[in-house]
Amino acid sequence: MSDSDTVGDADVAGMVATCRPEWRVTAYERADEGTDFVAFVDCETPAGPREAVLKATTAGFVRPEVARAEPRLYELVGRETSIPVPEVYGAVDAHDEFPAPFYLLERVGGENHESDPTVLAADVRERVCRDAGANLADLHELRTFDRVGSIGVRDGDLAVVPNDEGGPYTDGREWVRDGVDSTLDALAEGTCFPDLATEPERFADLVPALREAFDERLAAIPDPDPPRFCHWDYRWGNLLLDSETGETQAVLDWANLSTADPAYNLACVEYHLLNDGDGPATRESHRTALRDAYAAGREDWAFDASVTERMETYALLKRCDAMACLPLWHEEKDREGRARVERLHREAVGAFLDG
């Protein structure tokens, strides 16, 4: 039983009342997806019935100081950019009775296509990529930082704090090096989630060649750009869409935000949104839509050789991260389903190493 399973009716009612004392819960439904506790809540309010989303940090994958940043980031992004995000109704950093941090959020319309985005037509998915480029440009224009790290809360305010590798880092190349080492070590030793891994040495045979490739690339990698806000988990599962047009109605999950080279964020989002199963022409049209929209939103920005070279290295690291996280990300798949994912990863890594 997970910690989220221990959250009961009285807890839900109490957390909502803590965020909004004048609201009363009339019904709620737990979300099927996600690791933390998330519930869709129907409330009676002085202004009439209202639907909301209640999220509490229960799984332990996100440190409390990082989880506390999420509602603050929703408010910042909603206030200072045109990125569509839900309104925050209330947030609590710590509580003696209820699992915390927790917050109450507007429930936005739109559909989620995490399970199979390919049900959407190619031109609809191209619109999603175009919106992603514009949204990332908006995010990256907010501000620059002098360090690479996670976004957390210190003394009540947003701050750059250590991430899983350590830090914060004043040199982004050191952060990449540590990320490569920890990811490849995980692949060699049984993935990032050995307790879930049915085949812990699934990718171990690839590690020596990957170490050699990264060593060569990191020795010559161009200097990264100054760190900016990075929503590296901008993926289908964190988007609410108009399924007819592809318009992004909301970008979700602002926990685990980091500061990083913008090229890293772009490489992550291309990895998440471009489908391995599409043909080369479709993938290239989607990539072009994302990059053109991004460049249009960034003053004095261009996808020059330095940017694209860094993106290639970051994309390989993102691929390796996904391989190391396969037991968790594809926990619901059977043996054959995981084998299909493995084949796609091996084909992509092989093409990269051969190229």
Entry keywords:
four-stranded antiparallel β-sheet, alpha+beta, Aminoglycoside 3'-phosphotransferase, Chain: A, domain 2, globular, 355 residues, 11 helices
Lay out the secondary structure.
Layout: H1 9-19, E1 24-30, E2 37-45, E3 48-56, H2 64-67, H3 69-80, E4 88-92, E5 102-106, H4 122-140, E6 149-154, E7 157-161, H5 172-189, H6 207-220, E8 228-230, E9 239-241, E10 248-251, E11 258-260, H7 262-273, H8 280-297, H9 305-324, H10 326-329, H11 335-354
Antiparallel strand pairs: 1-2, 2-3, 3-5, 4-5, 6-7, 6-11, 8-11, 9-10
Helix pairs in contact: 4-7, 4-8, 5-6, 5-9, 7-9, 9-11
How would you characterize the overall build of this protein?
- By secondary structure, this protein is α+β, with helices and mostly antiparallel strands.
- The protein folds into 2 domains: 3-106, Phosphorylase Kinase, domain 1 (2-Layer Sandwich), CATH 3.30.200.20; 117-354, Alpha-Beta Complex (Aminoglycoside 3'-phosphotransferase, Chain: A, domain 2).
- The protein has helices at residues 9-19, 64-67, 69-80, 122-140, 172-189, 207-220, 262-273, 280-297, 305-324, 326-329, 335-354; strands at residues 24-30, 37-45, 48-56, 88-92, 102-106, 149-154, 157-161, 228-230, 239-241, 248-251, 258-260.
- The strands form 3 sheets. Strands 1-2-3-5-4 form a 5-stranded antiparallel β-sheet, sandwiched between helices. It has a 4-stranded antiparallel β-sheet with strand order 7-6-11-8.
- Helix 4 packs antiparallel against helix 7 (262-273) and helix 7 (262-273) packs across helix 9 (305-324).
- The longest helix has 20 residues, at 305-324.
- The chain is globular.
